[in-house]
Amino acid sequence: MAWRMLRRKDFHTGLVNLAFRKDHGVKKHFSSGTIGNLAQVYHGDRPKRSASCMPSNHFTIRNFHAGVYMLAWSRKREDVVGLKAPKKEKRVKKENRTQPPVEAPYIAPKPKTSIKSLPDKTVEIFDGMTLLDLSKRTGAYISTLQGILADLGEKVESEFDSISIDLAELVSMELGVNTRRMHTGEGTNEPRPAVVTVMGHVDHGKTSLLDALRQTSVAAKEAGGITQHIGAFVVEMPSGASITFLDTPGHAAFSAMRARGAAVTDIVVLVVAADDGVMPQTLEAMSHAKASNVPIVVAINKCDKSGADPERVRIQLGSEGLLLEDMGGDVQVVEISAVAKSGLDKLEEALLLQAEMMDLKARIDGPAQAFVVEARVDRGRGPLATAIVKYGTLVSGQHIVVGAEWGRIRSLRDTAGNITQSAKPAMPIEIEGLRGLPMAGDDVVVVDSEERARMLSHGRKKQQEKDRLRKIDEGMAEELEIKEETPERVEMPIIVKADVQGSVQAVTDALRSLNSAQVFVNVVHVGVGPISEHDIDLAQACGAYIVGFNIRSPPSTITQAAARANIKVLLHKVIYHLLEEMGRAIVEKAPGTAETQVSGEAEVLNIFELKGRSKSKGSDIKIAGCRITDGHFSKSGTMRLLRSGDVVFEGPCASLKREKQDAETIEKGNDCGLVIQDCDDFQVGDIIQCLEQVIRKPKFISTQSGSVRIEC
Q1: What's the angle, vertex CA 647, arms to CA 644 and CA 651, rounded to 5?
Q2: Where is the Tr-type G domain (predicted)?
């Protein structure tokens, strides 16, 4: 029985292999005898035994079973038995390309942020605005804003969630959009003192008026008797009311300071001298006040002088479009004298009346917002910023961001120099504790933490750097246009150092106004504080002038280093003298323009002819006997022969003699003999002009109003 089961097993194995052979097309390798033997086993016939007592057909099946692998090996098949081998694809011969490959157009990748608005567009942001509001204002997608907030460590899931004004500014800066903070007036509003800015022409008595109001003497301390800074202080009036005054410079170079004063003020006091009348800076102060939509109170000063004419001042102001009360307008006019201290009570009454009509109130609680009117560096206290609080209460110890600088308020000082813990609206204070020097005109913003202050400061610095590079590119483009028009233009590098940030800006703007077609004034570096060794090294590297305004004299080591490096250092305390000396230096450095001018005229009185000269001396020549009627004649000049007003000939002088002696120059009233090269067409009565090439330098022009310019 065991033998029969074994035979059946072998038989089934052979059938399986037989089926495999049939499927793979190898049926022809089987013999009929083998099939017959398989059938005998299937029907149960006992096969004949061999001498080895083993069935002979068993070996046939075994050989048949092993022959499948041998057949696969003989055909060098690599596939496993029982799996279908993949069909081989036909080889296609590649055609040789005769045409060059077609270049596919470049497709730029999609930007991560999609902003519909322009990068230089300014959007308004406010505290508590939603993500949807910011998306509409900046033109960016909600997902983009959420991604930026996630990078900043803030998670905002819904588009209707509100964010702080600091986060809104950080996100806008990441998108490259400029922002303007809009502060809400929510909170407790209380009356505040008026901020009054005193403006007018230089030397019309603005500082003297403030001296009379606060019974001090500031004008005596100013260099040259003119104000060169913004002074902010509080004056207690006799009636008990307090007014915050800003004193602005009147010189033409300090236009930016006057603009800042008008931007932060409530009322402008326009001081006009009764003996001088309306001047250019008076008109400029009027335009600043009108641009800021600030009411004006006119104070006609110096009415005690003999040449005072207040009526003429009124007529001039009316002709400039200022509607005075005397002429049916709403602008109050007060006649005063700062020296005699007359009319000050009327001026106080006019200011308080104007402030009462305006109903000045401000929010006193919540975070403060202030405006920087001046900034400077103190040797012991570091960067200091003079600011006026607009809203809220500024408290010592808060973290603030001022422009692109940040810091923690170390101390607050009032105008008298006393330390105070807080500052309320309309109060001028001096802020100490900043990490860097801010720019005059920057806003002071209170933030929650030091980390937020750092982030805002870093983002603003990046934005300022982008703006600076863009301005440099624009300036280089303008410079190339100027170079195309003017073939020769020299560069004059200048380093500016001053005592406060406002003076740095004023001096820089004034020097840049001296640009001309021949000299390019390039301010390579500005700074606040005394001249340092770094300034000397920088000036030596680029060959720059060092201009110090209203700073102390440098130590002897700095002075000697500048002398060894042949660096010019100009120190001045009055803006007039500084601009005059720089104007002369610019004129001296200018290459000038070559021009042809008539240096003299002569009349032909007689004609002499030399004949029979040897070949070595040349052919016959004609000599014009002339008398110089104007100017002088030079042998190096070009001679122009005129007849009846028309030019007959023009050429170089071959010979110039006086009394048979060669002469280089002959002055007016003398007779001379003149030979013009290649010219023998002289007639009695002709006019001969001597032309010379001269280098004309530009002119430095200073007007009575204080403005300066270079005229080529």
Answers
A1: 135
A2: 191-361
**Could you tell me if 297 and 350 are in contact, meaning their C-beta atoms sit under 8 angstroms apart?**
yes
**How far is residue 214's CA from residue 419's CA, in Å, rounded to a whole number?**
21
| Residue 391 falls inside a structural domain | yes
Cα 635 to Cα 239, 348, 618, 628, distances in angstroms: 83, 75, 20, 14
Cα(237)–Cα(246) distance, integer angstroms: 15
Which residues span the domain enclosing 131? 123-182
Judge whether residue 229 has pLDDT over 50.
Answer: no
Amino acid at residue number 284: E
Q: What are phi and psi of 59, to 5 degrees?
A: -65, -35
pLDDT digits (tens, 9 = 90+) for 578-587: 888 888 888 8
Cβ contact 425:392 at 8 Å: yes
CB distance 639 to 591 below 8 Å:
no
Per-residue confidence band for 410, with pLDDT thresholds at 50, 70 and 90: very high
- What is the edge-to-edge ordering of all strands in the sheet holding 267-273? 231-236, 242-247, 195-200, 267-273, 296-301, 332-335
Number of domains making up the chain: 5
- When pLDDT is averaged across residues 531-542 and rounded to a whole number, the result is 87
- Structure confidence by residue, pLDDT tens digits, 40-92: 444 444 444 444 444 444 444 444 444 555 555 555 444 444 545 555 555 65
**Do residues 204 and 296 both lie within one domain?**
yes
Are 341 and 263 members of one domain? yes
Q: Is 578 exposed, middle or buried (0-12, 13-18, 19+ CB in 10 A)?
A: buried
Residue 217 sits in the same domain as residue 351: yes
Instruction: Tell me the three state secondary structure of residue 324.
Output: strand
| Cβ-proximal residues to 387 (8 Å cutoff; 6+ apart), any chain | 370, 371, 372, 373, 428, 429, 430, 431, 444
As a whole number of angstroms, the distance between CA 42 and CA 54 comes to: 18
Strand partners, 332: 297
Q: Rounded to whole angstroms, how far apart are CA atoms 431 and 438? A: 11
Tell me the sheet residues that pair with 385. 375, 431
